[in-house]
């Protein structure tokens, strides 16, 4: 009888241990399934791919369709830059969206601003009989439209890219901060930026490119050189190929001297995809001695004349030419 009791106790102890083991295993499976194989893990992996600039891994995780657009923002430094200041504040708990789908909301700061994105994932299958497999519900990547009326390239997230059209569309991951700018010796556009937080977003960035001070200085020097050639053509009331002249019925004696009293202001503006000079206007003064043909009286000639002329502007990568157009 005593032996039977010992066996029963041993069996009970064994059964209790087995039940505790099974319970522990269930708990472990539950937490592993939730934390390691749960949908939050996929979202975290996706964010890490963005921050690493790994576009291939990010696209594989997101399972998104890439629109017909420039892909410069989808990999390497341009992608890494888009998430360089991304800081995750909270990855929310999964919320049921029906049909084995969940929505996960992520709060973060990007570009110094707090924002949020919602990702939809679906349960696809089981792994090792116990663990759920989750995948992003396929979507289409958002886009950024960059408009630059008078240039063929720009810097997007630190990467130099071609702009073959007046408006060029770029595909991008989300969340992302996209910044576009342009800087060269002769032209520059201040940075414009926008944030993408969902597949439905489209950001329009317009580059307001202007001539740099270096270009205005170079053009001004060319204009002054041209006018200097006109004022050095002494003893002419109408220097050939120049924008100013003076007619009189009196006899004018040499020397006849022209000088510029007000130089034209250089204004460079975009027109139909080209950079043009606005009409150049200034003042010139002519001085000489004149004789009245009727009375023979001599008197000083000093007249200030307004002048205006157009000029054709040509800007290369390192050279500038200005061609005056004189009627």
Structural account:
By secondary structure, the protein is α+β, with helices and mostly antiparallel strands. It has three domains: 2-136, Nuclear Transport Factor 2, Chain: A, CATH 3.10.450; 143-211, Immunoglobulin-like, CATH 2.60.40; 213-325, no CATH class. 25% of the residues lie in helices and 43% in strands. It has helices at residues 2-35, 39-52, 55-62, 76-82, 213-231, and strands at residues 87-91, 95-98, 101-110, 113-127, 131-136, 143-147, 153-156, 159-162, 167-171, 176-183, 187-196, 202-206, 210-211, 251-262, 268-271, 274-277, 280-291, 298-315, 320-325. The strands form five sheets. Strands 1, 2, 3, 4 and 5 form a five-stranded antiparallel β-sheet that branches. The termini are far apart. Mean pLDDT is 88; it is low at 23-34.
Provide tags for this entry.
about 325 residues; alpha+beta; Nuclear Transport Factor 2, Chain: A; Immunoglobulin-like; 3 domains; 5-stranded antiparallel beta sheet; 19 strands; about 25% helix
Topology:
Layout: H1 2-35, H2 39-52, H3 55-62, H4 76-82, E1 87-91, E2 95-98, E3 101-110, E4 113-127, E5 131-136, E6 143-147, E7 153-156, E8 159-162, E9 167-171, E10 176-183, E11 187-196, E12 202-206, E13 210-211, H5 213-231, E14 251-262, E15 268-271, E16 274-277, E17 280-291, E18 298-315, E19 320-325
Parallel strand pairs: 6-12
Antiparallel strand pairs: 1-3, 2-3, 3-4, 4-5, 6-9, 7-8, 7-10, 10-11, 11-13, 14-17, 15-16, 17-18, 18-19
